[in-house]
Amino acid sequence: MVKPRKKSSFHSVAHLIKKVTGNLVDHPNSKAHRLIKDWRRAVGDHVARHTEPVRLENGVLHVRVEHSVWMANLTFMKPQILQTLKKNYPQEKISDIRFREESLRSKPTTNAKKTVPSLPPAMGSEKKQAEHIVAQVQDPDLKALLGSLYESHLVRKRIDPGFNNS
After folding, report:
1. Total count of domains within the chain
2. Is residue 5 part of a domain?
3. Nearest 5°: phi and psi at 9?
4. Which of 2-11, 46-55, 97-106, 122-131 has the largest mean confidence?
5. Which pLDDT score is estimated for 109?
6. By residue range, what is the domain housing residue 133?
7. What is the pLDDT of residues 135-149, one digit of tens each?
């Protein structure tokens, strides 16, 4: 007996790259990036150890949760968390939080002061080099995404000479 095939949906390359890279290609000084970096402060150490914000899309904050027990707890805590986020990040117009049970990509440290430094802005030559590299890309979303990703790569390479080029 042959199993029926699942219907598959097609996604643009830009969508797939954004899904894989997550917030790595967001501008490091953007409000959404700051929200993700400040997650621990917004929800507290205890919750932050078991959760990880993924992205902010159309006013909906998507958050990974490491266990079903935490999913249940966060369902009850959602109104309080949403109220705190709306108060601290009014410009983001956060209207909802969606929790998803999934392994955390990075285990947050217990030291709240320890943060990942943001990248400095790209220099003019780095921006021009990135524009040149993606000039042949036709899709505007993909072009912008790849350009941003390549700019980040060039900045990392500039500030860290030991940065792995592979």
Report:
1. 2
2. no
3. -110, 145
4. 122-131
5. 46
6. 119-166
7. 998 888 888 888 888
Is there a domain that residue 21 lies in? Answer: no
Question: Are residues 124 and 67 part of one domain?
Answer: no
For residue 14, being part of any structural domain is answered with no
CA 25 to chain centroid, in Å, comes to 8
DSSP 3-state of 30:
coil
Shared-domain flag, residues 98 and 153: no
Give the 3-state secondary structure of the chain.
CCCCCCCCCCCCHHHHHHHHHHHHHCCCCCHHHHHHHCHHHHHCHHHHCCEEEEEEECCEEEEEECCHHHHHHHHHHHHHHHHHHHHHCHHHCCCEEEEEECCCCCCCCCCCCCCCCCCCCCCHHHHHHHHHHCCCCCCHHHHHHHHHHHHHHHHHHHHCCCCCCC
Cα Rg of the chain (Å, integer): 19
Domain of residue 45, CATH code: 3.30.300.180
The answer to whether residue 8 is domain-embedded is no
Amino acid letter at 102? Answer: E
Given a contact cutoff of 8 angstroms between Cβ atoms, the answer to whether 13 and 142 are in contact is: yes
